[in-house]
Amino acid sequence: MNVGIKIDHAVKIYKGFTAIHDLSLDIKPGEFFTLLGPSGCGKTTLLRMIAGFNSIEGGKFYFGDRLINDLDPSKRNIGMVFQNYAIFPHLTVRKNVAFGLQNRKMSKEQIQAQTDKFLKLMKIDEYADRMPEQLSGGQQQRVALARALAIEPDVLLMDEPLSNLDAKLRVEMREAIKEIQNSLGITTVYVTHDQEEAMAVSDRIAVMNKGDIQQIGTPKALYQRPENLFVATFIGRTNVINSKIYKDASGVGIVTDEGEKVPVAALIPELVEDGQEVVVSIRPEEFVIDQNNTKGISATVVYSTFLGLNTHYFCDLDNGQRVEIIQESKIDDIIQNGTKLKLDIKTEKINIYTKDGSKALVK
Amino acid sequence: MTRKLKKFDFWVVASIVVLALYILFMLYPMLKVLIQSFVDSETGKFSLMHFQKFFSQPYYFGTLLNSFKVAVASAFFALLIGIPLAYFYNVYRIRGAKTLQMLIILSSMSAPFLGAYSWILLLGRSGVITKFLEGLLGITMPSIYGFKGIVLVLVSKLYPLVFLYVSGAIKNIDSSLLEASANMGRTGLKRFFTVVIPLCMPSILAAALMVFMRALADFGTPMMIGEGYMTFPVIIYTSYVGEVGTDHNFASAVSIIAVVITLIVFLAQSYATKKTTFSMSAMHHIERKEAKTLPSILMHIYSYGVVAVSIFPQIYLIYLSFRKTSSNGNAFKPGFSLDSYKYVFENMGSSIWNTIRICGGALILIIIMAILISYLVVRRNNAINRVIDTMSMIPYIIPGAVIGIALILAFNNPKFPLVGTAWILIISMCIRRIPYTIRSSVAILGQIPMSIDEASESLGAGKLKTLIKVTIPMMLNGIFSGAVMSWVTLITELSSSLLLYTFRTMTLNIAVYVMVAKGSDGRACAMATILTLFTVITLLIFNKFSKDGEIMM
């Protein structure tokens, strides 16, 4: 139990197409690790390489110290949860959960006890003798999880396990998954394209795009200090604005279209020079609306959306660019469409990248 | 490349074994036929004389045209009858729909030659209906022999194929499509032709091809009712075993021509299907609704009328089997008796046992092969298995008589003496039936997501264990319904077994044919009835155990 996973320079080639070029990864024992990315980024491919269902064209995969490249999937001691659950439709819930145990040298009593334990843990013991088709989606998901966990695997692999559930159930199930993973302390690799889901369950997340890892980090780090523009735009929502650096005796910062200097303390002075063109990523909540029109970037409200907790304002800047601003809903009236106002920036939170978006310029 | 060569696993062995079997029992025999067709019968040297003979003499060449006419006409009328029947059955409420469907299926499930035989007894020169009409009303019936008779028999046996195919397609039409077209003002007949028919087109084409192929290759019907109207399966058969001078080489040449022609038709159909194909899967099936009174009555008359006409010959044979006959069994006498059955059980009992052991053996082999091959094709997609996939389709285009000849040419030798054994019948039945069973198994397996296998493997089950504990049980329902159809086809197989049987390996179906040929009508009817009983029992078993009542052809 509780092994780490080490991937060393993995390569995956599909019919001449290189899906994963050169990928290395270190997952700690007991960690809840998520592979996150848009569809086609290689996250499921990588998971299936760990599981043994995809061939490995290059690199080394280790569970702990054990090289598993050529190990048959059935001998890797993994628990896997599939997107479509892959529950055996011809077996009862109990037999589904017991399936993996029957492939081991265990007595009937042991199998029975172990099966009961996991049926209870996943709160499906009352459905033990039903056929899978009589269960709801959420219940089937629980069966799939119980079945994967019952064999007490070294690693738990989950391939978009919640994507077939409705929104409310998805939130409920992800809490259940997180809780069980915490209590069992089993090393888990989780694949999803839903960044909110990833942030909710993971200890660490690897953001992938086009077969490469863009950034590995905690949910907080990924959201607040994305290492490049792709991560900044993929995780959460953000406004991307072109700007210029100023660097003089007073310090460093960015210059707005109107020529106003906005100091940014987090900028790394050694990486920037005066007049350098950059892109700035400002999340909607990092704007502050200044209705008194004193300082900041000029903007005009185009329309607004009231969502209860927050109100979203969509504004056009003077250069015509549309930006989104989120403000905690106030008891006063919603700002009218057409209102001219100024937008202040929470400079400690924003991120600044080189013009091509590949490199962060803030600490 | 760090991954080592794949281990020598079970599926690699399976691929090699299956490939070897195909080469030995299909390619090698067909190669023999090909070689024989180019050999001069007398000198044993290379020659095109058989092909010249075939294409230069209208007597032979005409059989090709005849076969074509029969197949086209059969396909046309089978569609004409089968499509409306399927539409009425699936869209409107018909009283006794379940029974109706059973009867439709039942009417397709006997050897076509039996239909021909029964029609002769009814409408032939001395048929009961002919005599009745002549004697009572002075009406002379048009002759049942020749082209018209062949087409009548084949259509009444083959329209159920169209019915089943098109029913399957209509079941896949989402009811919202019909509602949408009604919403835009298109209903009734116009909707049937512009929405329903195009949506069913792939299935209609598939059904048309099936009917065409079966009609083209059918041998018993033209033999029985064709009289002077020769089709090429008859030529193949008579030139192989004919009373007047057999010519194996010429039979081989006609076989080759037959295969080439079916191949062309098959490719044309594949092309047409590709152009019309699309995938459908209904979220809301069409619910059968009550039609207005008059149309409803007409639909009932139509549906039950068609079924009555097609099933009546079979029932008439059953009736005849209980009639008193002359002592040699040739002529019917007034009154009823069980003498025909007594004779059959006393003298022909072995043919019942032969049917069970030969067809049963073939069925088991077919199921095993179909599971293996469909798994290889669907789950282990590599070069060898793609070759196997293509090979598995070849028998689809080889007429039964050709398979019979090929097997004789290949295995009538002292090194591998299979001719005369039960094995050669089993092999020929396997070859003939396997393409259909594989197609349905491939379809079933294709619907089982790969992740189910992977789940099993991730839980520690090896490849073989996964197959036995997970894949096969999941395929079972589909395999079972396919097996029912296979069983019925096997017990009514004639065109290749008639060439391959011996006295010791005679099945019921062949025995009926032999009895009919001898003119022993009562006994033939008794055996035909036993055969029908086999079919009915099979269908009842099927209905009891099948989940959804779908039959796969």
What does this structure look like?
- The complex is a heterodimer of chains A (363) and B (553).
- Chain A is α+β, with helices and mostly antiparallel strands and 363 residues long.
- Chain A has helices at 43-51, 93-102, 108-121, 137-150, 167-184, 195-201, 219-224, 229-234, and strands at 5-14, 17-27, 32-36, 58-63, 66-67, 78-81, 155-159, 187-192, 204-209, 212-217, 239-248, 251-255, 261-263, 277-282, 287-290, 297-306, 310-317, 322-328, 340-345, 351-354.
- In chain A, helix 2 runs parallel beside helix 4 and helix 3 crosses helix 4 (137-150).
- With 553 residues, chain B is mainly α.
- Chain B has two domains: 11-42 and 322-553, Orthogonal Bundle (MetI-like fold); 54-318, Orthogonal Bundle (MetI-like fold), CATH 1.10.3720.
- Chain B is 74% helix and 1% strand.
- Chain B has a two-stranded antiparallel ribbon with strand order 1-2.
- The interface between A and B is medium-sized, with 37 and 22 residues.
Total DSSP E strands of chain A: 20
Count the DSSP helices of chain A. 8
**CATH architectural label of the largest domain in chain B:** Orthogonal Bundle
Quaternary state reads heterodimer
In this structure, how is the largest beta sheet of chain A organized?
A: 6 strands, mixed
At the fold tier of CATH, the topology name of the largest domain in chain B is: MetI-like fold
Give average pLDDT of chain B, whole number.
86
Q: Give the radius of gyration of chain B.
A: 25 Å
Which CATH first-tier class of the largest domain in chain A would you pick? Alpha Beta
Largest interface: A-B, 37 and 22 residues
Give helix and strand order of chain A, one letter per element, not per position. EEEHEEEHHHEHEHEEHHEEEEEEEEEE
Poorly predicted parts of chain B: 1-5
CATH superfamily of the largest domain in chain A: P-loop containing nucleotide triphosphate hydrolases
- What is the CATH topology assignment of the largest domain in chain A? Rossmann fold
Beta-sheet strand percentage of chain A?
Answer: 25-35%
The total tally of domains of chain B equals: 2
Terminal residue distance of chain B:
46 Å
For CATH, the homologous superfamily of the largest domain in chain B is named as MetI-like
Radius of gyration of chain A over all CA atoms, rounded = 25 Å
Uncertain runs of chain A: none
